[in-house]
Amino acid sequence: MSDMTAKIQAAECLENSFMPELGPVKQGKVRDIYFTDDKVLMVATDRVSAFDHTIPNLIPYKGMLLNKISEFAFKSTEDIIPNALVQSPDPNVVVQKKLKNLGVECIVRGYVWGSMAGAYEKGTREFCGLSLPEGLKRYQKLETPLFTPTTKAEVGPDENMTLDEVAKLVGSMELAERVKDLSMKLYQRGCEVAAKANPPLMFIDTKYEFGTDEEGKLYLIDEANTPDSSRLCAVAEWEAKYPKIEAKVAELGAKNVSEVLAKCPELKVTEFSKQYVRDVLLEAGFKPGKAVPKLTEEQVVECTRRYVQVYESLTHQKFDFPTYSFPASQRLVNNLKAAGVIKGFCCMIFAGSDSDLGHMEKLATELAKFGIPSKKRVCSAHKQALKLDAAVELYNTSIEPLVIIGCAGGTDALSGTSSWSSVWPIVSCPPEGSKGEKNESCIWNPPGSSNSYIVRPSNAAKHVAQIFSYYSPAVVAALKANCDKKVAGLCESDGKLW
């Protein structure tokens, strides 16, 4: 076993980054995205997708390597267009400016490859309003790179677009032409960088996304020139194999290159892209609608090895395999805390009715006195039982510590139901407490329901602070300051009397 293989197999992968403190997460197949006031925080996990499916395996260090390659590409193209990158507080995280996405996948192709090659072999000659000549072959270099934009579909496959359709979507032909021009310049820069790689790489095709700020200024967003958004291969391999492929097409009288590859699979060009995963799935018999096959351990190692090779070839830097011994999710939380992006803990306030919103606000105000972030949800245990179960199941996946406060009035089924399946502490603080009334239903939940019951919102907040004090010196200081203030008040009153 090689040293690299051993390090890959021993890796702590990042599958999930759910941090409720940051608000709702937009979970893609590969990335988890959080939107704040003026920023977008994107977590590149070690999940991998192919054919619009997330495969069962995690690919060690994939997210980390994609971010490193993308940051390198952003820095190498700043003279062409500014990018949205603000900071990278963790190897798996990039924080970007929140911009208006143009909604176009700006694809540039330098070779007859991928889906274009497949469609061409089936007889298609029109792509995105462009006409291709007869006689082209898979893997062949195009006379000039082509701009073949597509829609950015939230669900289902992207659709090809003409430049006129892009102009209609973005608002003007002037902006559409500018996006096309920038895409071509970025692709050319990618080709130049790839040619200087060690060993030299061929930049086959790629995808860019753009966004505008409030003043209409254009930025490069998302990612750039990574193996997930691009195809690359070794120049030496292409130069050695393509002439042999052309010769075999003539020798066999084949209709296309795919027929040759079926008979001579050794001539297939090795890609540094997600195509490797796609090929593995196809070889395993995968078809849309069927269960996604699991990769073997050797195939997982090969995936990571290819990402490492692209990173090291493009950047001329050695990839340092992390040596930490704790989970990647813990490292992520620690780094975001250190950067001041999160506190690293959160209190969820669950109400059973919108009539309890005022009580929720009181709880949030009391929690804020101790520096504890909170988020609010409304979900009835009686009327929305399935939704409540799903919410608890979701928050069970949080990678930062939580406490849940249930503030349902009347018969408090919310706290009892939640505490049965929650991995986090549940505190019952029903709205009756704000009126000086008790709600004994909170303490008569069935066996296995472990919620505590605290009447006053201020006391519930202090209890939550005491739970979180283990994770935060600032909370400890706030608790001590709260006690000192009370004692100082008593001493002051006593001094006036004595």
List the helices and strands and how they pair.
Layout: H1 3-9, E1 25-27, E2 31-35, E3 39-44, E4 47-50, E5 53-58, H2 62-76, E6 85-90, E7 93-97, E8 100-101, E9 104-111, H3 114-121, E10 126-127, E11 130-131, E12 141-147, E13 150-151, H4 163-170, H5 173-195, E14 201-212, E15 218-221, E16 230-234, H6 235-252, H7 257-263, H8 275-283, H9 297-315, H10 328-338, E17 346-351, H11 357-368, E18 374-378, H12 385-395, E19 402-406, H13 413-421, E20 426-428, E21 452-453, H14 457-468, H15 473-497
Parallel strand pairs: 17-18, 17-19, 19-20, 20-21
Antiparallel strand pairs: 1-2, 2-3, 3-7, 4-5, 6-7, 8-14, 9-12, 9-13, 9-14, 10-11, 14-15, 14-16
Keywords:
498 residues, alpha+beta, seven-stranded antiparallel sheet, five-stranded antiparallel sheet, 15 helices, 39% helix, elongated
Tally of extended strands?
A: 21
Shape descriptor = elongated
Termini separation (Å)? 81 Å
The residue ranges in which pLDDT falls below 50 over 5 or more consecutive positions are: none
Q: What is the share of helical residues?
A: 25-40%
**Proportion of beta-strand residues:** 15-25%
Largest sheet: 7 strands, antiparallel
Number of helices: 15
Radius of gyration, in Å, reads 28 Å
Quick check: average pLDDT? 93
- Structural class, by secondary structure, is alpha+beta
Summarize the structure.
The chain is of the alpha+beta class. Helices cover 39% and strands 20% of the residues.
Commentary on this structure:
The protein is α+β, with helices and mostly antiparallel strands and 498 residues long. 39% of the residues lie in helices and 20% in strands. The protein has 15 helices and 21 strands. Strands 8, 9, 12, 13, 14, 15 and 16 form a seven-stranded antiparallel beta sheet that branches. A five-stranded antiparallel beta sheet has the order 1-2-3-7-6. Helix 6 packs across helix 7 (257-263). The protein starts with a helix and ends with a helix.
